[in-house]
Amino acid sequence: MGRIRRIAGIDYSLTSPSVCVYEGEIEKIKFDDCKIYFLSNTKKFSDYNYKNLDGQKNLSNFVTPEERYDFISDWAMDILISHKIEEVFLEDYSYGSTGKVFHIAENCGLLKYKMWQSDIKLTLVAPTQIKKFATGKGNAKKELMYESFFNETSRNLIEEFSQKSEKIGNPISDVVDSYFICKYSTSI
Known about the structure:
globular, alpha/beta, 7-stranded mixed β-sheet, about 190 residues, about 40% helix, about 20% strand, Nucleotidyltransferase, domain 5, 7 strands
């Protein structure tokens, strides 16, 4: 029997972060044994609870960016602390990122600081490592990540989230990514 651990995989962002928590033997991580939390700006996902998925509204009426970062990091920390998480696996920055890269870094930096203050061990994982672990391809797109997720779990998140199209977007891609980030712990 393996050692029981409490871990989390986080796909962190400014608008739709997702946290996958797991307690059990690391070698036996299965999606249905995880609890997945996510934030969404989309009204239909802002109070979403189905099976092991828990969606909440990401507030949008922030006065400053710092207020947003504090809200999101507090949300994540509440999850980590309530589950007594021992180690977090966090997707590291993408080297090819464009757009609000400094905002993303400030947002993520605040979460890292709060985890450090709470003595929660942090392991950063490159996005290419997660993609390769999940699909065999380090440059996999969202659709291939979802296909790997579906093949492994048989959970049709497109149907569960009542998506009108087959396009893989938020929060589905965030849930999938946080799960594979959490499961990545079995490979290291």
